[in-house]
Amino acid sequence: xxxxxxxxxxxxxxVSTPDESAALAAADLVPDPDGVxxxxxxxxxxxRIAGRQEFWxxxxxxxxxxxxxxxxxxxxxxxxxxxxxxxxxxxxxxxIVMATGxxxxxxxxxxxxxxxxxxxxxxxxxxMTAQHGADTAxxxxxxxxxxxxxxxxxxxxxxxxxxxxxxxxxxxxxIAEGLALLVSDGKPVVxxxxxxxxxxxxxxxxxxxxxxxxxxxxxVLHVILAWTRSGVHLLAAGGNRQATKALGISNxxxxxxxxxxxxxxxxxxxxxxxxxxxxxxxxxxxDSLLLAIAAVVLGGANLFGGRARIFGxxxxxxxxxxxxxxxxxxxxxxxxxxxxxxxxxVGSAVAMRTQ
Amino acid sequence: xxxxxxxxxASGGQTILEASAIEKRFGNVRxxxxxxxxxxxxxxxxxxxxxxxxxxxxxxxxxxxHAPDRGQLSVDGQPVSFSSSDEARKAGIxxxxxxxxxxxxxxxxxxxxxxxxQVRSFGPFRFLNRRxxxxxxxxxxxxxxxxxxxxxxxxxxxxxxxxxxVAISRAVHWxxxxxxxxxxxxxxxxxxxxxxxxxxxxxxxxxxxxxMISHNIDQVMRLASQVWVMRAGRVVGGLSTATASHEDIVxxxxxxxxxxxx
Lengths: 355, 262
Description:
Strand order of the largest sheet of chain A: 1-2
CATH class of chain A: Mainly Alpha
Largest sheet of chain A: 2 strands, antiparallel
Strand order of the largest sheet of chain B: 6-9-10-3-11-12
Helix content of chain A: over 70%
Helix content of chain B: 25-40%
Distance between the termini of chain A: 23 Å
Oligomer: heterodimer
Largest interface: A-B, 41 and 36 residues
């Protein structure tokens, strides 16, 4: 195995072609052959390890998901029933939207701590708008628009005034939370809305509208991140600020884009949450922030920026929801879940720092 | 300034870039005190000098990073002034800095096309032509004889020489007039230095105007045909490696010949 791997990678390193050896000899500066062999082997070994890390970054979430499904399925076969799988996917819809949105922020080497508070603020304002007799379109617009505004404010302060991401979003976490409680007086508002009920309960074939909406969001964000100039520039800015600046890319604009997308995700998640629960949720659910960031990291993103994949985040969010629902299904205390997720986040950050 | 600094170079193509009497001050430090030189096509030109002589400041003025306080830059005989490195790039001047300006987490192809990506339009949307860029990246690297495992490899996984190769390729691909290299082999081992040197020599032969800062006089003798020597913020001499010796250059750098002192 080891030998065949080496055989595969060695030609690719192209350490010494005959032409170059000739040039070296002509230049009378040939390093001793043993030295060349050593460095070549060292390079090959390094590259093999790097290849392994790439592999794990890309495949941790899918492999983990399959493992969990097999594990829960073998303990409790009922877990793999179509109805239950459908329930897990429906539970995953909101985490998917929050996590894929905030993937843009992680890609830019930032972190959006205000995510869950923004959802609460959007939800509170949805309640207020509904109480004033607004129609469905207006309610949705207020929810998504509020998220976008919070994101734009975060992005502007971080990008142009250049204050570290965690300080700004820690501040907006408090501001959004306080505003949400002020506006709602801390009380949920029951929303009786036919379209919302459809969104949360009706399905096409097996997939609920809510799940389809989450998948559509993931698809759009994937296209932006992987197939547009903005996406590449965002990853570049997250990977190396100096380099992107030297090449004429505005880091501030990339931060604005990242937080705008994260805010939009929070706004949409608030609309979906309000539809799912049937009432507004004006107090922030901190676990949802932790879960969203853990999903991004499990999906192969680098917490220090420059690397992120929407597909990975999507699978990461489904994986963590499966874990949550599986523990509940087996009657294990749900309190284990935030502990596990916390370990995942810190553990993968340590793994990336020490790689 | 000495008359030597204005002696017309012995060989090579037309003058493309000219700096005359460039001055640049940082607070109380006069980094450049009237530096003048010219860069010609199809020539590898070296800028040498001790630390603090003003080499880096001068190339940063030529590549738009610094705006000179006084003096004039001209490209193809036309006076220019760059307010950003973007403007210098638009004028066809590409610079490879020591820190390379590569993004480790991106692939070789993504780095080669960073901020100059090719797109295809579908209605109002524009999507990256990823396959096209990969193909061109492959072509570019093989034209320059630069070996990387793959254009989809991440730059993080490359060796120092390969990274330098990618950075130079990017400059070559986009430079319409001048390629500036700031100590291109400073961080490289013997073997990688050889590879990068052969790339630089090929560029000069291929018609490009290559400007290179180097501390290694042997390397300068091997690669460059024209040498400008800087001392204390001025260009104190211009030599042709065809006629000048290693010792001549060192003497100019240290100011050993009293006649050269400006």
